Amino acid sequence: MSTSLASLTIRQLQNDLKAGHISPVDIVSDVITSIENKDSEVGAYLSINTEDAIEQAQNADISKPLGGIPISIKDLINVEGQPCSCGSKFLKDSYISTYDATVIKKLKEAGAIPLGRVNMDEFAMGSSTENSGIQITKNPWDLKRIPGGSSGGSAASVANDTAIASLGSDTGGSIRQPASFCGTVGLKPSYGRVSRYGLVAFASSLDQIGPVTKTSEDAAIILNTIAGNDPLDSTSLDSEVPDYLQSLNGDIKGLKIGMPKEYFTEGINPEVLSCIHGGIKTLTELGAEIIDISLPHTEYAVSTYYIIATAEASANLARFDAVRYGNRTSDPTNIIEHYRKSRAQGFGEEVKRRIILGTYVLSSGYNDAYYVKAQKVRTMIRNDFKNAFENVDAIVSPTAPTPAFKIGEMSNDPLQMYLADIFTIAANLAGICGISTPCGVIEEDTGNKLPVGLQILGPALQETTILKISDAFEKATDWHKQRPSN
Amino acid sequence: MQDKSIDVNYVADLARLELTPDECERFSEQLNKVIDFVKQLEKLETDSIEPMAHASPVFDIMRDDVNRPGFGSENALLNAPMANKNQFKVTRVVES
User: Labelling B31: which of A33, A103, A176, B82 has CA 20 to 30 A away?
Assistant: First the structure.
């Protein structure tokens, strides 16, 4: 049996397309076949626009940067004519996007084909995709385990070779952590690097869209297309977009990479730690200089994040009032009951919990004690990174303290689940960029393997640096080529 | 220091969320644990620190004051739970 084109990278497909060996229709057909054959047990996809995607493939222009390349899309990024349910019952079966998000417009202009909507924690709130109001997504490496979250469908689709690449969003680690758990690459761009127009907002000062891919090279290809200023998102930065591919020369000699002592403490799974140390050794062999650094306010990041993110979420989710869209409760007697019941019926537990926490920290009498306090600590966390980046070019750490956990293992203990984000959320608070790339696997007692991700953080707008490091790492190792055995 | 345990019923009312008694009890227990945890921030001296609302703040982003294409009522109503006469149909707001 010949290899499915769905298992290849963007770069490999581009080479084959240009050589005339394959057509965009071949690629899209292979991805759809792969979804039909392999997605039922993983459950990454919520819907697939088969006919429309094939039609786009027939008309694809392969001279464009992403010509004929299908990309799966996290279910909170608007694609005109497709559902956008944000993994929520509130929008399920009742919402069809009436416009393209800016990232989708850019992807389409570059010739890419948005193919399918992939699952997520409801409104991106969660770290396991168990909070989806629609379905459970399983980790392709071990179907008893979660794929991570909130972009669990993105990472699972890429890892399962049911997608070439995917777009996710990262508010506190939602691209990097599932990438780590599924053995893929996940890039969170710096705040403001990519337009958020058309991304359904969770926490507006933290959210960023980014790619989940099989290689850092592919991540650079997608970032080249989606990065840049957008008049429709006033927080998008008006700074030049470099050619991210050009920096990928494999040469990281002399680069200074910091190892923050606060990220290498007790509580990290020992096997994860050993994979990370192996990864750091490889970076040293490639000529990078590893330097001990300190990010002294790391222990406060989770608290700061869960105050700021929920506060912003409680305001953002006020728009879900079942007046203009969303599933409305039947026969409410007055407008207050209409709001209360529609929202109660549409939102899942975690979303309700976070709206309540966010409303509480913003409420009269508590605003200063929680919200303003957290904003001040956020400044301290940002300053930690600012100081660190005076001495190093990048920072390396585990992406998550554990490999993928079992379905149901943490779902009754929200605080434990929040603490699992400890290594990823500071980057969002500080607005810097980060990438997770596979750096090892752990073997379970059952013989199953679980991937581990190495996180590389860089200063704001220095995506070139972290992509260069992760790409050099991938050129020297085979971890990113490993695939689940099922 | 004032009592900071959370009155979930009261806050849910502010957020226009109807909770079952069971949810209320469960969220109280879970969120009080979260609040106890985030109180660790009190340990930090922050009097001289500026609060930060945005990682990379940008200011005074203006656009030309000219017409540009909008949504149009047909598009805006596509996902309406109830619509009538080219308008959203809303639950009664004014008391009869």
Answer: A176
